[in-house]
Amino acid sequence: MKIDPDSSVDLSIQIASAIRDAIIDGTLPVDERLPSEQELCEHFSVSRSSVREALKRLGAQSLIRTQRGATGGAFVNRLTYAAAHGQQITTSTLLLSMNEVSFSTACEARYALESACARLAAQRRTADHVATMRAEAYKQAQPGLTDEAFCASDVAFHRALVDAADNDVMSYQLAGAVEAMQPLMNMITFSARSRERIVALHNDIATALDDQDADKICELLNELSSYTNSLAESVFAERDALRGQ
Amino acid sequence: MKIDPDSSVDLSIQIASAIRDAIIDGTLPVDERLPSEQELCEHFSVSRSSVREALKRLGAQSLIRTQRGATGGAFVNRLTYAAAHGQQITTSTLLLSMNEVSFSTACEARYALESACARLAAQRRTADHVATMRAEAYKQAQPGLTDEAFCASDVAFHRALVDAADNDVMSYQLAGAVEAMQPLMNMITFSARSRERIVALHNDIATALDDQDADKICELLNELSSYTNSLAESVFAERDALRGQ
DNA sequence: AGACAATTAAATGTCTGACAAATGAAAATT
DNA sequence: AATTTTCATTTGTCAGACATTTAATTGTCT
Protein backbone atom coordinates (compact mmCIF):
# COMPACT_ATOMS: atom_id res chain seq x y z
CA MET A 1 0.00 0.00 0.00
CA LYS A 2 1.33 3.38 -0.99
CA ILE A 3 1.37 6.62 0.93
CA ASP A 4 0.32 9.88 -0.68
CA PRO A 5 1.88 12.87 1.08
CA ASP A 6 -0.40 15.25 -0.85
CA SER A 7 -3.56 13.53 0.27
CA SER A 8 -5.84 15.39 2.61
CA VAL A 9 -5.70 12.36 4.86
CA ASP A 10 -3.19 12.49 7.69
CA LEU A 11 -0.02 10.54 7.10
CA SER A 12 -0.35 8.64 10.37
CA ILE A 13 -3.77 7.43 9.27
CA GLN A 14 -2.51 6.28 5.89
CA ILE A 15 0.45 4.49 7.42
CA ALA A 16 -1.69 2.85 10.09
CA SER A 17 -4.11 1.64 7.43
CA ALA A 18 -1.32 0.20 5.34
CA ILE A 19 0.08 -1.75 8.26
CA ARG A 20 -3.37 -2.77 9.47
CA ASP A 21 -4.20 -4.18 6.06
CA ALA A 22 -0.98 -6.14 6.07
CA ILE A 23 -1.94 -7.64 9.41
CA ILE A 24 -5.48 -8.48 8.38
CA ASP A 25 -4.51 -10.16 5.14
CA GLY A 26 -1.79 -12.13 6.84
CA THR A 27 1.25 -10.48 5.22
CA LEU A 28 2.36 -9.71 8.74
CA PRO A 29 1.69 -12.83 10.79
CA VAL A 30 1.16 -12.92 14.53
CA ASP A 31 4.28 -12.22 16.60
CA GLU A 32 6.14 -10.98 13.54
CA ARG A 33 8.36 -8.02 14.28
CA LEU A 34 7.64 -4.91 12.27
CA PRO A 35 10.56 -2.98 10.79
CA SER A 36 12.08 -0.51 13.24
CA GLU A 37 10.67 3.01 13.31
CA GLN A 38 13.73 4.20 11.41
CA GLU A 39 13.18 1.64 8.67
CA LEU A 40 9.50 2.49 8.44
CA CYS A 41 10.45 6.16 8.04
CA GLU A 42 12.62 5.31 5.08
CA HIS A 43 10.11 2.89 3.61
CA PHE A 44 7.25 5.37 3.69
CA SER A 45 9.45 8.45 3.24
CA VAL A 46 8.02 10.22 6.25
CA SER A 47 9.33 11.48 9.55
CA ARG A 48 9.55 9.46 12.68
CA SER A 49 6.70 11.41 14.31
CA SER A 50 4.29 10.28 11.65
CA VAL A 51 5.40 6.68 11.93
CA ARG A 52 5.13 6.79 15.70
CA GLU A 53 1.64 8.30 15.62
CA ALA A 54 0.61 5.54 13.24
CA LEU A 55 2.00 2.89 15.59
CA LYS A 56 0.14 4.42 18.52
CA ARG A 57 -3.08 4.16 16.55
CA LEU A 58 -2.45 0.47 15.96
CA GLY A 59 -1.47 0.00 19.58
CA ALA A 60 -4.77 1.52 20.70
CA GLN A 61 -6.54 -1.19 18.73
CA SER A 62 -4.39 -3.90 20.32
CA LEU A 63 -3.08 -4.80 16.87
CA ILE A 64 0.54 -4.37 17.92
CA ARG A 65 2.58 -4.24 21.08
CA THR A 66 5.93 -2.50 21.45
CA GLN A 67 9.03 -3.35 23.39
CA ARG A 68 12.04 -1.25 24.09
CA GLY A 69 15.64 -2.32 23.96
CA ALA A 70 18.09 -3.93 21.60
CA THR A 71 15.84 -6.71 20.36
CA GLY A 72 12.70 -4.66 20.85
CA GLY A 73 10.35 -3.16 18.33
CA ALA A 74 6.72 -3.44 17.38
CA PHE A 75 5.21 -6.89 17.16
CA VAL A 76 1.95 -8.07 15.71
CA ASN A 77 -0.33 -8.95 18.57
CA ARG A 78 -2.36 -12.08 18.76
CA LEU A 79 -5.76 -10.59 19.48
CA THR A 80 -6.95 -12.44 22.54
CA TYR A 81 -10.53 -12.91 23.61
CA ALA A 82 -9.71 -10.89 26.71
CA ALA A 83 -8.40 -7.92 24.75
CA ALA A 84 -11.24 -8.00 22.23
CA HIS A 85 -13.65 -8.32 25.08
CA GLY A 86 -12.21 -5.30 26.87
CA GLN A 87 -12.47 -3.19 23.77
CA GLN A 88 -16.01 -4.28 23.16
CA ILE A 89 -17.02 -3.30 26.65
CA THR A 90 -15.48 0.16 26.33
CA THR A 91 -17.20 0.69 23.01
CA SER A 92 -20.56 -0.68 24.11
CA THR A 93 -20.49 1.27 27.36
CA LEU A 94 -19.81 4.52 25.56
CA LEU A 95 -22.41 3.72 22.95
CA LEU A 96 -25.04 3.19 25.60
CA SER A 97 -24.11 6.27 27.60
CA MET A 98 -23.84 8.62 24.62
CA ASN A 99 -26.93 7.62 22.76
CA GLU A 100 -29.54 7.76 25.42
CA VAL A 101 -30.36 4.12 24.96
CA SER A 102 -33.37 3.41 27.09
CA PHE A 103 -32.92 1.01 29.92
CA SER A 104 -35.69 -1.19 28.62
CA THR A 105 -34.08 -1.53 25.20
CA ALA A 106 -30.73 -2.53 26.65
CA CYS A 107 -32.37 -4.82 29.15
CA GLU A 108 -34.44 -6.51 26.50
CA ALA A 109 -31.39 -7.09 24.33
CA ARG A 110 -29.39 -8.46 27.18
CA TYR A 111 -31.90 -11.02 28.33
CA ALA A 112 -32.88 -12.02 24.81
CA LEU A 113 -29.26 -12.76 23.98
CA GLU A 114 -28.78 -14.55 27.23
CA SER A 115 -31.77 -16.77 26.54
CA ALA A 116 -30.00 -17.79 23.36
CA CYS A 117 -27.32 -19.36 25.51
CA ALA A 118 -29.79 -21.16 27.69
CA ARG A 119 -30.36 -24.15 25.42
CA LEU A 120 -26.68 -24.78 24.86
CA ALA A 121 -25.88 -24.10 28.49
CA ALA A 122 -28.49 -26.59 29.61
CA GLN A 123 -26.89 -29.26 27.46
CA ARG A 124 -23.32 -28.60 28.40
CA ARG A 125 -23.28 -27.19 31.90
CA THR A 126 -20.83 -28.72 34.33
CA ALA A 127 -21.01 -28.90 38.10
CA ASP A 128 -18.51 -26.04 38.22
CA HIS A 129 -20.82 -23.63 36.45
CA VAL A 130 -23.73 -24.43 38.71
CA ALA A 131 -21.49 -24.14 41.76
CA THR A 132 -20.22 -20.73 40.67
CA MET A 133 -23.74 -19.50 40.15
CA ARG A 134 -24.88 -20.76 43.55
CA ALA A 135 -21.86 -19.17 45.20
CA GLU A 136 -22.64 -15.81 43.60
CA ALA A 137 -26.29 -16.07 44.58
CA TYR A 138 -25.20 -16.79 48.14
CA LYS A 139 -22.93 -13.76 48.09
CA GLN A 140 -25.80 -11.63 46.84
CA ALA A 141 -27.89 -12.67 49.81
CA GLN A 142 -25.40 -11.29 52.31
CA PRO A 143 -26.68 -8.22 54.13
CA GLY A 144 -24.48 -5.13 54.02
CA LEU A 145 -23.40 -5.72 50.46
CA THR A 146 -23.02 -2.46 48.56
CA ASP A 147 -25.10 -1.92 45.44
CA GLU A 148 -21.95 -1.98 43.37
CA ALA A 149 -20.77 -5.27 44.81
CA PHE A 150 -24.23 -6.68 44.25
CA CYS A 151 -24.12 -5.66 40.59
CA ALA A 152 -20.62 -7.07 40.16
CA SER A 153 -21.76 -10.38 41.57
CA ASP A 154 -24.77 -10.23 39.28
CA VAL A 155 -22.44 -9.92 36.30
CA ALA A 156 -20.37 -12.86 37.55
CA PHE A 157 -23.53 -14.94 37.92
CA HIS A 158 -24.67 -14.30 34.39
CA ARG A 159 -21.16 -14.68 33.10
CA ALA A 160 -21.13 -18.22 34.48
CA LEU A 161 -24.42 -18.96 32.73
CA VAL A 162 -23.00 -17.72 29.44
CA ASP A 163 -19.78 -19.66 29.90
CA ALA A 164 -21.78 -22.81 30.53
CA ALA A 165 -22.75 -22.74 26.86
CA ASP A 166 -19.09 -23.58 26.21
CA ASN A 167 -18.78 -21.48 23.08
CA ASP A 168 -15.93 -18.98 23.08
CA VAL A 169 -17.43 -16.77 20.42
CA MET A 170 -20.70 -16.55 22.26
CA SER A 171 -19.00 -15.84 25.57
CA TYR A 172 -17.12 -13.00 23.94
CA GLN A 173 -20.23 -11.49 22.42
CA LEU A 174 -22.44 -11.93 25.42
CA ALA A 175 -19.99 -10.92 28.09
CA GLY A 176 -19.64 -7.63 26.27
CA ALA A 177 -23.38 -7.10 26.23
CA VAL A 178 -23.81 -8.01 29.87
CA GLU A 179 -20.92 -5.97 31.20
CA ALA A 180 -21.66 -2.93 29.10
CA MET A 181 -24.99 -2.75 30.87
CA GLN A 182 -23.43 -2.56 34.28
CA PRO A 183 -23.22 1.26 34.44
CA LEU A 184 -26.92 1.35 33.68
CA MET A 185 -27.62 -1.30 36.29
CA ASN A 186 -25.57 0.61 38.83
CA MET A 187 -28.09 3.43 38.63
CA ILE A 188 -30.58 1.20 40.39
CA THR A 189 -30.66 1.01 44.14
CA PHE A 190 -31.62 -2.43 45.27
CA SER A 191 -33.79 -2.61 48.33
CA ALA A 192 -33.56 -5.62 50.61
CA ARG A 193 -36.85 -6.88 49.25
CA SER A 194 -35.88 -6.55 45.61
CA ARG A 195 -32.57 -8.25 46.28
CA GLU A 196 -34.39 -11.12 47.90
CA ARG A 197 -36.54 -11.54 44.84
CA ILE A 198 -33.56 -11.46 42.48
CA VAL A 199 -31.55 -13.93 44.56
CA ALA A 200 -34.52 -16.28 44.59
CA LEU A 201 -34.71 -16.12 40.80
CA HIS A 202 -30.97 -16.67 40.56
CA ASN A 203 -31.20 -19.76 42.70
CA ASP A 204 -34.06 -21.05 40.59
CA ILE A 205 -32.02 -20.48 37.45
CA ALA A 206 -29.10 -22.40 38.93
CA THR A 207 -31.44 -25.25 39.76
CA ALA A 208 -33.00 -25.22 36.31
CA LEU A 209 -29.54 -25.29 34.77
CA ASP A 210 -28.59 -28.19 36.98
CA ASP A 211 -31.77 -29.96 35.82
CA GLN A 212 -30.91 -29.10 32.21
CA ASP A 213 -34.31 -27.52 31.81
CA ALA A 214 -33.75 -24.92 29.09
CA ASP A 215 -37.37 -23.80 28.87
CA LYS A 216 -37.46 -23.14 32.58
CA ILE A 217 -34.29 -21.06 32.36
CA CYS A 218 -35.76 -18.93 29.60
CA GLU A 219 -38.93 -18.46 31.56
CA LEU A 220 -36.98 -17.38 34.63
CA LEU A 221 -34.80 -15.04 32.59
CA ASN A 222 -37.92 -13.41 31.23
CA GLU A 223 -39.22 -12.94 34.71
CA LEU A 224 -35.89 -11.46 35.79
CA SER A 225 -35.97 -9.16 32.82
CA SER A 226 -39.40 -7.73 33.55
CA TYR A 227 -38.62 -7.41 37.23
CA THR A 228 -35.38 -5.54 36.56
CA ASN A 229 -37.24 -3.35 34.16
CA SER A 230 -39.94 -2.49 36.65
CA LEU A 231 -37.30 -1.69 39.26
CA ALA A 232 -35.57 0.64 36.83
CA GLU A 233 -38.83 2.30 35.90
CA SER A 234 -39.67 3.13 39.48
CA VAL A 235 -36.18 4.50 40.05
CA PHE A 236 -36.45 6.71 36.99
CA ALA A 237 -39.96 7.80 37.88
CA GLU A 238 -38.79 8.84 41.35
CA ARG A 239 -35.82 10.69 39.91
CA ASP A 240 -38.02 12.54 37.45
CA ALA A 241 -40.45 13.43 40.20
CA LEU A 242 -37.66 14.93 42.29
CA ARG A 243 -36.45 16.83 39.28
CA GLY A 244 -39.91 18.21 38.65
CA GLN A 245 -40.08 19.88 42.07
CA MET B 1 -6.39 12.07 36.83
CA LYS B 2 -2.72 12.60 37.41
CA ILE B 3 0.22 11.66 35.24
CA ASP B 4 3.29 9.97 36.68
CA PRO B 5 6.37 10.62 34.54
CA ASP B 6 8.33 8.00 36.49
CA SER B 7 5.82 5.26 35.84
CA SER B 8 6.84 2.41 33.60
CA VAL B 9 3.72 3.11 31.58
CA ASP B 10 4.16 5.28 28.51
CA LEU B 11 3.06 8.87 28.94
CA SER B 12 0.84 8.75 25.88
CA ILE B 13 -1.03 5.82 27.41
CA GLN B 14 -1.50 7.59 30.72
CA ILE B 15 -2.68 10.76 29.04
CA ALA B 16 -5.04 8.87 26.76
CA SER B 17 -6.50 7.04 29.76
CA ALA B 18 -7.01 10.26 31.67
CA ILE B 19 -8.88 11.86 28.79
CA ARG B 20 -10.80 8.66 28.05
CA ASP B 21 -11.98 8.48 31.64
CA ALA B 22 -13.11 12.09 31.45
CA ILE B 23 -15.14 11.24 28.37
CA ILE B 24 -16.65 8.11 29.88
CA ASP B 25 -17.70 9.75 33.13
CA GLY B 26 -19.16 12.71 31.31
CA THR B 27 -16.69 15.37 32.42
CA LEU B 28 -16.07 15.95 28.75
CA PRO B 29 -19.46 15.87 27.05
CA VAL B 30 -20.08 15.07 23.42
CA ASP B 31 -18.90 17.74 20.97
CA GLU B 32 -16.95 19.50 23.69
CA ARG B 33 -13.66 20.87 22.46
CA LEU B 34 -10.61 19.57 24.29
CA PRO B 35 -7.91 22.06 25.31
CA SER B 36 -5.44 22.74 22.53
CA GLU B 37 -2.37 20.54 22.30
CA GLN B 38 -0.31 23.37 23.76
CA GLU B 39 -2.62 23.68 26.75
CA LEU B 40 -2.62 19.93 27.28
CA CYS B 41 1.20 19.98 27.27
CA GLU B 42 1.17 22.53 30.05
CA HIS B 43 -1.58 20.81 31.99
CA PHE B 44 0.16 17.43 31.99
CA SER B 45 3.68 18.88 31.93
CA VAL B 46 4.74 16.80 28.95
CA SER B 47 5.92 17.47 25.45
CA ARG B 48 3.68 17.96 22.48
CA SER B 49 4.72 14.61 20.98
CA SER B 50 3.37 12.74 23.96
CA VAL B 51 0.11 14.65 23.88
CA ARG B 52 -0.24 14.06 20.17
CA GLU B 53 0.43 10.35 20.47
CA ALA B 54 -2.23 10.18 23.17
CA LEU B 55 -4.72 11.99 20.93
CA LYS B 56 -3.97 9.57 18.08
CA ARG B 57 -4.77 6.69 20.40
CA LEU B 58 -8.13 8.23 21.22
CA GLY B 59 -8.74 8.98 17.58
CA ALA B 60 -8.15 5.33 16.69
CA GLN B 61 -10.98 4.43 19.06
CA SER B 62 -13.27 7.03 17.49
CA LEU B 63 -13.45 8.81 20.84
CA ILE B 64 -12.32 12.13 19.38
CA ARG B 65 -12.07 13.80 16.02
CA THR B 66 -9.66 16.60 15.14
CA GLN B 67 -10.02 19.65 12.98
CA ARG B 68 -7.38 22.01 11.77
CA GLY B 69 -7.55 25.73 11.55
CA ALA B 70 -8.32 28.70 13.74
CA THR B 71 -11.36 27.26 15.48
CA GLY B 72 -10.08 23.71 15.19
CA GLY B 73 -8.93 21.28 17.83
CA ALA B 74 -9.93 17.91 19.18
CA PHE B 75 -13.61 17.30 19.85
CA VAL B 76 -15.34 14.55 21.73
CA ASN B 77 -17.03 12.30 19.23
CA ARG B 78 -20.56 11.08 19.57
CA LEU B 79 -20.05 7.36 19.16
CA THR B 80 -22.57 6.30 16.57
CA TYR B 81 -23.98 2.84 16.13
CA ALA B 82 -22.34 2.77 12.71
CA ALA B 83 -18.87 3.57 14.07
CA ALA B 84 -19.19 1.15 16.97
CA HIS B 85 -20.46 -1.46 14.60
CA GLY B 86 -17.51 -0.98 12.23
CA GLN B 87 -15.04 -1.33 15.04
CA GLN B 88 -16.74 -4.42 16.34
CA ILE B 89 -16.55 -6.06 12.93
CA THR B 90 -12.83 -5.31 12.59
CA THR B 91 -12.17 -6.71 16.04
CA SER B 92 -14.36 -9.77 15.65
CA THR B 93 -12.97 -10.55 12.22
CA LEU B 94 -9.40 -10.41 13.47
CA LEU B 95 -10.33 -12.42 16.52
CA LEU B 96 -11.84 -15.16 14.42
CA SER B 97 -8.98 -15.23 11.92
CA MET B 98 -6.19 -15.18 14.50
CA ASN B 99 -7.55 -17.72 16.92
CA GLU B 100 -8.43 -20.56 14.67
CA VAL B 101 -12.02 -20.46 15.77
CA SER B 102 -13.69 -23.48 14.29
CA PHE B 103 -16.39 -22.86 11.77
CA SER B 104 -18.86 -24.85 13.79
CA THR B 105 -18.27 -22.76 16.91
CA ALA B 106 -18.79 -19.51 15.07
CA CYS B 107 -21.75 -20.88 13.21
CA GLU B 108 -23.38 -22.14 16.37
CA ALA B 109 -22.94 -18.77 18.06
CA ARG B 110 -24.31 -16.92 15.13
CA TYR B 111 -27.50 -18.90 14.76
CA ALA B 112 -28.08 -19.13 18.49
CA LEU B 113 -27.92 -15.37 18.80
CA GLU B 114 -30.07 -14.92 15.78
CA SER B 115 -32.71 -17.20 17.24
CA ALA B 116 -32.81 -14.84 20.20
CA CYS B 117 -34.13 -12.18 17.86
CA ALA B 118 -36.73 -14.43 16.38
CA ARG B 119 -39.34 -13.98 19.10
CA LEU B 120 -39.09 -10.22 19.12
CA ALA B 121 -38.88 -10.09 15.34
CA ALA B 122 -42.00 -12.19 15.02
CA GLN B 123 -43.90 -9.76 17.20
CA ARG B 124 -42.69 -6.57 15.61
CA ARG B 125 -41.89 -7.33 11.99
CA THR B 126 -43.27 -4.93 9.43
CA ALA B 127 -44.11 -5.55 5.79
CA ASP B 128 -40.85 -3.82 4.89
CA HIS B 129 -38.71 -6.37 6.68
CA VAL B 130 -40.46 -9.28 5.06
CA ALA B 131 -40.23 -7.59 1.66
CA THR B 132 -36.48 -7.01 2.08
CA MET B 133 -35.96 -10.63 2.99
CA ARG B 134 -37.97 -11.88 0.03
CA ALA B 135 -36.07 -9.55 -2.29
CA GLU B 136 -32.72 -10.86 -1.05
CA ALA B 137 -33.91 -14.45 -1.36
CA TYR B 138 -34.96 -13.70 -4.92
CA LYS B 139 -31.56 -12.20 -5.65
CA GLN B 140 -29.88 -15.29 -4.23
CA ALA B 141 -31.82 -17.47 -6.65
CA GLN B 142 -30.39 -15.69 -9.71
CA PRO B 143 -28.00 -17.87 -11.68
CA GLY B 144 -24.56 -16.46 -12.37
CA LEU B 145 -24.30 -14.82 -8.97
CA THR B 146 -20.76 -14.97 -7.60
CA ASP B 147 -20.17 -16.68 -4.29
CA GLU B 148 -19.21 -13.35 -2.78
CA ALA B 149 -22.39 -11.65 -3.95
CA PHE B 150 -24.36 -14.60 -2.65
CA CYS B 151 -22.76 -14.23 0.78
CA ALA B 152 -23.31 -10.49 0.81
CA SER B 153 -26.97 -11.00 0.06
CA ASP B 154 -27.08 -13.64 2.77
CA VAL B 155 -25.80 -11.07 5.26
CA ALA B 156 -28.41 -8.56 4.08
CA PHE B 157 -31.13 -11.17 4.53
CA HIS B 158 -30.17 -11.96 8.08
CA ARG B 159 -29.60 -8.32 8.84
CA ALA B 160 -33.23 -7.67 7.93
CA LEU B 161 -34.33 -10.43 10.27
CA VAL B 162 -32.30 -8.90 13.09
CA ASP B 163 -33.58 -5.41 12.36
CA ALA B 164 -37.14 -6.70 12.50
CA ALA B 165 -36.65 -7.17 16.24
CA ASP B 166 -36.60 -3.36 16.38
CA ASN B 167 -33.99 -3.12 19.10
CA ASP B 168 -30.97 -0.95 18.29
CA VAL B 169 -28.72 -2.56 20.85
CA MET B 170 -29.49 -6.00 19.56
CA SER B 171 -28.99 -4.96 15.94
CA TYR B 172 -25.62 -3.59 16.86
CA GLN B 173 -24.54 -6.74 18.66
CA LEU B 174 -25.91 -9.16 16.14
CA ALA B 175 -24.84 -7.37 13.01
CA GLY B 176 -21.31 -7.57 14.32
CA ALA B 177 -21.57 -11.29 14.89
CA VAL B 178 -23.12 -11.96 11.51
CA GLU B 179 -20.76 -9.81 9.49
CA ALA B 180 -17.63 -10.97 11.28
CA MET B 181 -18.48 -14.44 10.06
CA GLN B 182 -18.54 -13.44 6.44
CA PRO B 183 -14.85 -14.16 5.74
CA LEU B 184 -15.42 -17.65 7.07
CA MET B 185 -18.58 -18.04 5.00
CA ASN B 186 -16.73 -16.85 1.93
CA MET B 187 -14.52 -19.91 2.15
CA ILE B 188 -17.47 -22.04 1.14
CA THR B 189 -18.27 -22.54 -2.50
CA PHE B 190 -22.00 -22.80 -2.99
CA SER B 191 -23.12 -25.27 -5.60
CA ALA B 192 -26.34 -24.66 -7.47
CA ARG B 193 -28.03 -27.36 -5.44
CA SER B 194 -26.91 -26.03 -2.08
CA ARG B 195 -27.98 -22.52 -3.04
CA GLU B 196 -31.38 -23.84 -3.96
CA ARG B 197 -31.73 -25.41 -0.54
CA ILE B 198 -30.63 -22.25 1.25
CA VAL B 199 -32.93 -20.01 -0.76
CA ALA B 200 -35.82 -22.33 0.01
CA LEU B 201 -35.09 -22.07 3.72
CA HIS B 202 -34.80 -18.29 3.42
CA ASN B 203 -38.17 -18.08 1.76
CA ASP B 204 -39.66 -20.27 4.46
CA ILE B 205 -38.17 -18.02 7.11
CA ALA B 206 -39.65 -14.96 5.45
CA THR B 207 -43.02 -16.67 5.39
CA ALA B 208 -42.76 -17.72 9.03
CA LEU B 209 -41.85 -14.18 9.98
CA ASP B 210 -44.81 -12.86 8.05
CA ASP B 211 -46.97 -15.37 9.93
CA GLN B 212 -45.37 -14.27 13.19
CA ASP B 213 -44.50 -17.86 13.94
CA ALA B 214 -41.44 -17.58 16.16
CA ASP B 215 -41.06 -21.29 16.82
CA LYS B 216 -41.05 -22.02 13.13
CA ILE B 217 -38.35 -19.40 12.54
CA CYS B 218 -36.14 -20.95 15.21
CA GLU B 219 -36.67 -24.38 13.74
CA LEU B 220 -35.74 -23.15 10.26
CA LEU B 221 -32.69 -21.32 11.61
CA ASN B 222 -31.54 -24.53 13.23
CA GLU B 223 -31.96 -26.34 9.98
CA LEU B 224 -30.00 -23.62 8.18
CA SER B 225 -27.30 -23.83 10.80
CA SER B 226 -26.77 -27.57 10.46
CA TYR B 227 -26.92 -27.38 6.68
CA THR B 228 -24.32 -24.60 6.56
CA ASN B 229 -22.19 -26.59 8.92
CA SER B 230 -22.36 -29.71 6.81
CA LEU B 231 -21.46 -27.70 3.71
CA ALA B 232 -18.45 -26.25 5.50
CA GLU B 233 -17.38 -29.66 6.72
CA SER B 234 -17.37 -31.14 3.24
CA VAL B 235 -15.40 -28.15 1.93
CA PHE B 236 -12.83 -28.54 4.66
CA ALA B 237 -12.67 -32.31 4.21
CA GLU B 238 -12.01 -31.86 0.49
CA ARG B 239 -9.36 -29.25 1.17
CA ASP B 240 -7.63 -31.47 3.69
CA ALA B 241 -7.74 -34.39 1.28
CA LEU B 242 -6.05 -32.31 -1.42
CA ARG B 243 -3.47 -31.18 1.06
CA GLY B 244 -2.74 -34.75 2.02
CA GLN B 245 -1.74 -35.70 -1.52
C1' DA C 1 -23.10 50.66 3.99
C1' DG C 2 -21.99 46.52 1.71
C1' DA C 3 -19.15 43.39 -0.96
C1' DC C 4 -14.86 41.61 -1.74
C1' DA C 5 -9.84 40.93 -0.95
C1' DA C 6 -5.80 40.71 1.97
C1' DT C 7 -3.98 39.98 6.44
C1' DT C 8 -3.58 37.80 10.67
C1' DA C 9 -3.94 34.58 14.44
C1' DA C 10 -4.68 30.05 16.11
C1' DA C 11 -4.69 25.46 15.64
C1' DT C 12 -3.19 20.93 13.91
C1' DG C 13 0.20 18.38 10.74
C1' DT C 14 4.95 17.34 9.67
C1' DC C 15 9.93 17.39 10.00
C1' DT C 16 14.51 17.42 12.28
C1' DG C 17 17.70 16.57 15.75
C1' DA C 18 18.81 15.42 20.22
C1' DC C 19 18.96 12.85 24.49
C1' DA C 20 17.05 9.30 27.94
C1' DA C 21 16.04 4.68 29.09
C1' DA C 22 15.68 -0.10 28.40
C1' DT C 23 17.57 -4.36 26.90
C1' DG C 24 20.00 -8.06 24.99
C1' DA C 25 24.44 -9.39 23.06
C1' DA C 26 29.19 -9.18 22.98
C1' DA C 27 33.50 -8.27 25.19
C1' DA C 28 36.33 -7.95 29.12
C1' DT C 29 37.48 -9.30 33.63
C1' DT C 30 37.86 -12.10 37.59
C1' DA D 1 33.33 -20.72 33.86
C1' DA D 2 31.02 -17.12 35.85
C1' DT D 3 30.44 -12.46 36.39
C1' DT D 4 30.77 -7.79 35.19
C1' DT D 5 31.27 -4.19 31.88
C1' DT D 6 30.67 -2.21 27.66
C1' DC D 7 28.17 -1.37 23.66
C1' DA D 8 24.84 -1.13 19.97
C1' DT D 9 20.04 -1.03 18.98
C1' DT D 10 15.51 0.40 19.67
C1' DT D 11 11.71 2.78 21.64
C1' DG D 12 10.29 6.88 24.68
C1' DT D 13 10.51 11.83 25.41
C1' DC D 14 11.66 16.51 24.58
C1' DA D 15 12.41 20.98 22.08
C1' DG D 16 11.97 23.84 18.29
C1' DA D 17 10.88 24.92 13.68
C1' DC D 18 8.08 25.30 9.62
C1' DA D 19 3.86 24.02 6.71
C1' DT D 20 -1.01 23.98 6.20
C1' DT D 21 -5.65 24.88 7.20
C1' DT D 22 -9.26 27.76 8.74
C1' DA D 23 -12.01 31.41 10.51
C1' DA D 24 -12.01 35.94 12.12
C1' DT D 25 -10.33 40.47 11.39
C1' DT D 26 -8.95 44.27 8.84
C1' DG D 27 -8.59 46.97 4.80
C1' DT D 28 -10.23 48.54 0.35
C1' DC D 29 -13.19 49.58 -3.22
C1' DT D 30 -17.69 50.49 -5.12
Give the largest chain-chain interface (CB within 8 Å).
A-B, 56 and 57 residues
Report the end-to-end length of chain A measured between terminal Cα atoms.
61 Å
Largest sheet of chain A: 2 strands, antiparallel
Q: How much of the sequence of chain A is in beta strands?
A: under 5%
Could you give a quick summary of the protein structure above?
Two copies of one chain form a homodimer. Chain A has 245 residues and is mainly alpha-helical.
Q: How is this fold's topology laid out?
A:
Two copies of one chain form a homodimer.
Chain A: H1 11-24, H2 37-44, H3 48-60, E1 64-67, E2 73-76, H4 81-98, H5 103-124, H6 127-141, H7 147-164, H8 168-180, H9 182-185, H10 192-210, H11 214-244
Antiparallel strand pairs in A: 1-2
Chain A binds a DNA duplex (30 and 30 nucleotides) through residues 5, 10-12, 36-38, 46-50, 52-53, 55, 66-74.
Your description of this structure?
By secondary structure, chain A is mainly alpha-helical. Chain A folds into 2 domains: 66 residues, Arc Repressor Mutant, subunit A (Orthogonal Bundle); 163 residues, GntR ligand-binding domain-like (Four Helix Bundle (Hemerythrin (Met), subunit A), Up-down Bundle), CATH 1.20.120. Helices cover 71% and strands 3% of the residues of chain A. The first copy, chain A, has 11 helices and 2 strands, in the order αααββαααααααα. A two-stranded antiparallel sheet of chain A has the order 1-2. In chain A, strand 1 and strand 2 form a beta hairpin. In chain A, helix 5 packs across helix 7 and helix 6 packs antiparallel against helix 10. The longest helix of chain A has 31 residues. The first copy, chain A, is elongated, with a radius of gyration of 23 Å. The termini of chain A are far apart. The model of chain A has no long low-confidence stretch (mean pLDDT 90).
